[in-house]
Amino acid sequence: MNNAEEKPKRKIIHIDMDAFYASVEQRDFPEFRGKPLAVGGSPDGRGVVATASYEARKFGVRSAMSSKTALQLCPHLLFTKPRFEAYKEVSQKIREIFSRYTDLIEPLSLDEAYLDVSEDKMNIGSAIDIAKAIKDAIKNELNLTASAGVSVNKFVAKIASDINKPDGLTFIGPSKIIPFMEALPVEKFFGVGKVTALKMKNLGLFYGSDLKKLSENEMQKHFGKTGKFFYQIVRGFDDRPVNANRISKSIGAEDTFENDIDDIEVLKKEIEKLSIIVYNRLNVKNKEGKTLTLKVKFSDFSQITRSYTFINYVTDQKVIFENAVELLNKIDLENKKIRLLGVTISNFYNEENDIITFRQLNLFDDFEEAD
């Protein structure tokens, strides 16, 4: 028997708030209720959407979408500026609700977290009942809705929370994990962006059952280090614990383009989009960093990074954008096309002793593909 199978099954809940920023705005401002709303961006077409209400999502408006595109999809779309202090305050209240049931809480952002309720503080026993209680408390006390996924590992719980949004609760028990993963479309796998999904489909890989046909070496050959992860998870293996002490050492965003780009003005617009996303994430995490890193992957899959360390901590989106563009300008782009850009901020201030810390980003850091 596999050693992992001999271990007691964990009880993992993934809680994901529904359209969090937009829902807080609609709760606090009646004029936004029931209307398509974008948090972030602007009606003049500049900037990008941070979060869209469900009314806006019906028109195809999504986070990280340019305001210009959002307006084309939904001409009567309303815009409002993010209020990060308000979101942080609500997030803290949500965290207090979580802590009634467990101390094993791993926040991923202001609006989502993993909870390990294998040993819950209120001795309820059932992870499903705990998830219901948390959802009810969020609705009754904060007038907001959340969706929950319940399973025995983090990966499946996270996917489950997205199945019946908004205000959903989905349980995927041990006996259901393998058939669930086999039937799951590859684009639904956490960590698979639009470009990776397209690559998988070009290889004839459309569902988890297709991924299972490849050996671990074949998976790594096609998809690098994440190939090993996909090989394991499609078989139901995910032994990552809920990490209550998870500390962000770098925050960033990247985008892989559907078509390789060599137009410098287009690249600058992409950097502007990424810089806004990174700036918003820094605000959400209440972080200030000194080191800016630009990641560039070329059409031949070669990759370089260029970094700049400021004297003071970065607190301005324009500074991120302008210096990332300056880093790009210093790279020889003659006869080269770019397939991926990434912007990250690291070298954070440590409030206790101002220790400078670095860590290589991986799939589960605060780093997401901006699609």
UniProtKB/TrEMBL annotation:
A GO biological-process term: DNA repair
Catalytic reaction list: DNA(n) + a 2'-deoxyribonucleoside 5'-triphosphate = DNA(n+1) + diphosphate
Alphabetical list of CDD domains matching this protein: PolY_Pol_IV_kappa
InterPro entries xrefs: DNA/RNA_pol_sf, DNA_pol_Y-fam_lit_finger_sf, DNA_pol_Y-fam_little_finger, DNA_polymerase-Y, DNApol_IV, IMS_HHH_1, Rev_trsase/Diguanyl_cyclase, UmuC
Keywords: Cytoplasm, DNA damage, DNA repair, DNA replication, DNA-binding, DNA-directed DNA polymerase, Magnesium, Metal-binding, Mutator protein, Nucleotidyltransferase, Transferase
Xref: SUPFAM superfamilies: DNA/RNA polymerases, Lesion bypass DNA polymerase (Y-family), little finger domain
Binding site for Mg(2+): 16, 111
Function: Poorly processive, error-prone DNA polymerase involved in untargeted mutagenesis. Copies undamaged DNA at stalled replication forks, which arise in vivo from mismatched or misaligned primer ends. These misaligned primers can be extended by PolIV. Exhibits no 3'-5' exonuclease (proofreading) activity. May be involved in translesional synthesis, in conjunction with the beta clamp from PolIII.
Full protein name: DNA polymerase IV
Lineage of the organism: Bacteria, Pseudomonadati, Bacteroidota, Sphingobacteriia, Sphingobacteriales
